[in-house]
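Technical appendix A lists one of the benchmark inputs used to test multi-chain prediction within the project. The record comprises two sequence entries:
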Amino acid sequence: MTGPPRINAEERDLVAAAQAGDREAFSGLVRLHQRRAYLVARAIVTVHEDAEDALQDGFVRAFQALDRFDPSQTFGAWLNRIVANAALDLTRRRKVRNTEELTDALRSPFRDPAENAELRERLAEALGKLPERARSVIVLHDVEGYTHVEIGEMLGIPGGTARSDLHHARQKLRELLKDLRG
Amino acid sequence: MTDELKFPDPLERRVPRDADALDERTARAIHEAYLPPLTHGEVENNYWSALEQRIMARVASANPAQREQGYWSVLNGWAQVGLVAAAALFAIGGLVSQRLGEPEEQVAYESVVPTSSTPEAVSAPAALLTASGSSAQRDAALQYVLSY
């Protein structure tokens, strides 16, 4: 968290061109960042279709606010905050989803055929039972590797709250998966 | 360029895993569960290319006029309506208060400045002060009041 953020030259050029109105350059930024941004959206909304909607909303908002982006910052971090906001807006508009719906959303076939089917099923069930924010925090931190501060900025909560949510989410998840471990 | 098309691996972490973190197997399994589902036979890169095209179609249809107006663009229309409504209310309020205020002012004025009957103790100076028309009369009245 010390020193200026590292920005690669390709991204810096794309940002400068996109800010000058080059849509191809913005398309390049989409190509570079859509996968991580999708995971941020998915960590918040859980359902794949909602994550796609939030991602598209987020990129449109980013495009419209591009003039306000400070090129000395990393585009990815800025974009992730916008996408996370779009995802949070979407969850507010959607009715509360029940556990079964969320479990189904996470039951998609694993890409790794060697992955344990029971683990997949139990994980989907356990994640569906976690409170919404706790689920987002544990996925963003323990799975995708974002810091408490970054998560706090994305979810609009203090970093300390993200840390305490993470602690409770880990405890709950371990409890739900305890007979699977060993 | 091919590296950019690879999905971010959860093990390529920027933040070191702490002692209390979920074990690697569980983290990887959750990461897998959060990847977009692919339809039968679909190649992952095709999915991302298609999504990129959908995003760019949305960007292209976004109104360029909306760019860089932020939240204020929502208020622009309402601000004009609000200003007109406030001006109209102000004008109507002024008229109404003027009309309603007139009789009250009259009553208040008459209660302070007697017009016909005046108490004996103040009747002489007050009558002189209020009834005097010319400056000579006012001076005389002033002299009369000061002499007491």
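Residues 72-112 of chain B form the longest helix (41 residues). Confidence is low (pLDDT under 50) at residues 1-7 of chain B. Comparable benchmark entries are summarised in Table A2.
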